[in-house]
Amino acid sequence: MWKSSIHVKVLLVPFFGEDVEETVVLPKGTATRWSEMMSVLQDSFKQLLSSYATYLDEEGAVITITTDAELQEALTSKVRSFTVSPQLSSERQVDGWQYLNSPSQEVEHQSWSNELHFWVNGEEVRLTNPSPSITLLDWLRESKGLTGTHVGCGEGGCGICTVALVLPSGEAVPINSCLRRLCAVDGCHVVNTQGLGSVKGELHPLQKAIADGNGSQCGFCTPGWVMNMYSLLEKNATPSKEVVEQNFDGNLCRCTGYRPILDSFGDFAEGGKCCGSHKSVPLPSGMQDHEVTPLHFTDVATGEEYYRPVTVTQIMDVSKKASRDNKQVRYMCGNTAVGVEKYLTKDPQYANTAFIDLNFVAEFSESRVGQFGFHVGSAVSIESLISQLEQGDDAFKAYADHLKRIASVQIRSVASWAGNLMLCRESALKKDFSYFPSDLVLVLATAHASVKVLVEGRPRIMGVLDLMQLPGSVVVLSATIPQACKHSFVKTYKMMKRHVFSHAIVNFGANLTLNPDRTVRSATVILGGATSTIMAAGRTEMALVHKPMNEATLIAAITALESDIDASPSTGELDSMAYKKSTAVGFL
């Protein structure tokens, strides 16, 4: 029994939306029983809660409470802050209490449509049960005869196969059609170079400009360049010349040396002679009336299945079904990871896989500024994340600038930030994977971002670096990026082989908060590339905290950073370790 009332702070962490914190009074005379405490909490929050709570111990580890004894131990240890989550729709009542991971009633199979409905160059297309293994590129060329879209590297690296994908929202984005699964274009309008114009009729202004400007020699890469520029002008009718140049980080040309291409398309920039002459392909009238429904396609020959759920419950249901069917579960948004996976593991396997497309679950695509910072759903694309960060303060703009160095505009336009994190996590946990040096992990860790995840069906909230080491079945729900403190200094760096579209050799992030006297109040230093994982440089952080910003502190921090690198697992590339260490020190 409690001899006096106990005041505890409880943070309610919903799957989506704002976190809610309340001070809850556990009345005097109440037994130290877990069920009794949860009844008080449920009355306070006015909703059913999951059958556990968590708290952080003195070392920062997450401790879970599910029993009377665990609660008694926490209260005895003076723990007064707990985190709880709402009850899952898949939880069920047993003897007056809720239990997780209980079987839920699956959505009836008949409610999942097997018809793919989309448009190509204004023409309506309906396909029944297309194979999940077919790419949009292969279908355009082999089934529609639209061979103006060329086959290049097949991994999203050259931009030759670029087409414009007009999303159901009306936004046009450039994509690598070699990476896009045909199944994932439902409700969209696909536009390729033949949809713009041809010499048989009338050339589109972009096609005419690149031809007249000698921007096409062998012509093999030209359709990709045209469609990338088309997508840019659909988004921004009067871009600056700098924006035009930056937009082509995902297109290669082996003939022209790029200058005539840039000159040709630069004429469409603000103030150019072609500015305002762009012509849009009209949206098909039926797009506005397209109904978003759950989709399910299957290929019996390969064992591949494609699901497009529209609710969180459906995600959980099809995940459980796939696991029971002994299928590998693969969550996807842009499916861009297949372009690099063959370099990370020798033999990537996609047969007997259930692909679960998260793009049409509304909660996964939400973004907003809330009480605790910028909240972003897991299906939000990297490009969209960049655009929204650019609207924030100087720290957010610094994060955006770094994220622009990830892959290319075609990849960033459809790849989700959460997919990038999970690829890094997979490479860290699997022995047969080479490490994926994620710039997103580095930036989010530098920003003190937290992520909401489902771990074996249980909701949790944690830091980004903790997620990288978390085993088991994990679904990322969202992330919260806090606003930087008023007196913060934030800087990130990336050393790579090329200026664009290249993994980091070394990447580095620092987030320092200063006192009025210019001493360091707090320090976060994140390092990647110089070690086998992205890591927090703990010794370096300790060398900075409570120290003045002077030369002596810098020397001590350099020594500490070298010690952090030496104490961590190496990349195995001994001949380059000295270079990587000196690069990291140079960033500091």
TrEMBL record:
<feature type="domain" description="2Fe-2S ferredoxin-type">
    <location>
        <begin position="114"/>
        <end position="196"/>
    </location>
</feature>
<dbReference type="Pfam" id="PF00941">
    <property type="entry name" value="FAD_binding_5"/>
</dbReference>
<dbReference type="InterPro" id="IPR000270">
    <property type="entry name" value="PB1_dom"/>
</dbReference>
<keyword id="KW-0001">2Fe-2S</keyword>
<dbReference type="GO" id="GO:0005506">
    <property type="term" value="F:iron ion binding"/>
</dbReference>
<dbReference type="Pfam" id="PF01799">
    <property type="entry name" value="Fer2_2"/>
</dbReference>
<dbReference type="Pfam" id="PF03450">
    <property type="entry name" value="CO_deh_flav_C"/>
</dbReference>
<dbReference type="InterPro" id="IPR036010">
    <property type="entry name" value="2Fe-2S_ferredoxin-like_sf"/>
</dbReference>
<dbReference type="InterPro" id="IPR036683">
    <property type="entry name" value="CO_DH_flav_C_dom_sf"/>
</dbReference>
<dbReference type="GO" id="GO:0051537">
    <property type="term" value="F:2 iron, 2 sulfur cluster binding"/>
</dbReference>
<dbReference type="Pfam" id="PF00564">
    <property type="entry name" value="PB1"/>
</dbReference>
<keyword id="KW-0274">FAD</keyword>
<dbReference type="InterPro" id="IPR036884">
    <property type="entry name" value="2Fe-2S-bd_dom_sf"/>
</dbReference>
<dbReference type="InterPro" id="IPR012675">
    <property type="entry name" value="Beta-grasp_dom_sf"/>
</dbReference>
<feature type="domain" description="FAD-binding PCMH-type">
    <location>
        <begin position="299"/>
        <end position="486"/>
    </location>
</feature>
<dbReference type="InterPro" id="IPR002346">
    <property type="entry name" value="Mopterin_DH_FAD-bd"/>
</dbReference>
<dbReference type="InterPro" id="IPR036318">
    <property type="entry name" value="FAD-bd_PCMH-like_sf"/>
</dbReference>
<dbReference type="GO" id="GO:0016491">
    <property type="term" value="F:oxidoreductase activity"/>
</dbReference>
<keyword id="KW-0408">Iron</keyword>
<keyword id="KW-0479">Metal-binding</keyword>
<keyword id="KW-0411">Iron-sulfur</keyword>
<dbReference type="InterPro" id="IPR016208">
    <property type="entry name" value="Ald_Oxase/xanthine_DH-like"/>
</dbReference>
<keyword id="KW-0285">Flavoprotein</keyword>
<dbReference type="Pfam" id="PF00111">
    <property type="entry name" value="Fer2"/>
</dbReference>
<dbReference type="InterPro" id="IPR016166">
    <property type="entry name" value="FAD-bd_PCMH"/>
</dbReference>
<dbReference type="InterPro" id="IPR005107">
    <property type="entry name" value="CO_DH_flav_C"/>
</dbReference>
<protein>
    <recommendedName>
        <fullName>2Fe-2S ferredoxin-type domain-containing protein</fullName>
    </recommendedName>
</protein>
<dbReference type="InterPro" id="IPR002888">
    <property type="entry name" value="2Fe-2S-bd"/>
</dbReference>
<dbReference type="GO" id="GO:0071949">
    <property type="term" value="F:FAD binding"/>
</dbReference>
<dbReference type="InterPro" id="IPR006058">
    <property type="entry name" value="2Fe2S_fd_BS"/>
</dbReference>
<keyword id="KW-0560">Oxidoreductase</keyword>
<dbReference type="InterPro" id="IPR001041">
    <property type="entry name" value="2Fe-2S_ferredoxin-type"/>
</dbReference>
<dbReference type="InterPro" id="IPR016169">
    <property type="entry name" value="FAD-bd_PCMH_sub2"/>
</dbReference>
